[in-house]
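OsmC family protein
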Amino acid sequence: MAEHNMVDTVRTRSIGLPGRALNSARTHHFVLDSSSGPSEALTNSEAFLAGISSCGVTLIEKYAKEAGMPLTGMEITITGTRAANPARFQAIAMRFEIHGVDKAAADRLVEVWQAR
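Tokens:
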């Protein structure tokens, strides 16, 4: 059976304001700002962290549904810490709040996400 690859494409362009970029993904357009400014829009780092945490929410919800687990909701808080070099994260911490299942099931759901 042939393997099918998923391909996601985002196009980013400058808009004449240093530190700000216009991004397009499919028919969606959004502005991202550098963490060094102007920082009025969502920053590149915030968008990166949101991608990680939203992947956690959607993957865990899908797995719980497929496994017949009574998940009623969840939240992930993600924090990225950068040191002197702002281009690199020194640490990323995530806090999962999972509702509708006991602690053992919640721990299993996080393990499923971590294994992916």
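The longest strand covers residues 89-99.
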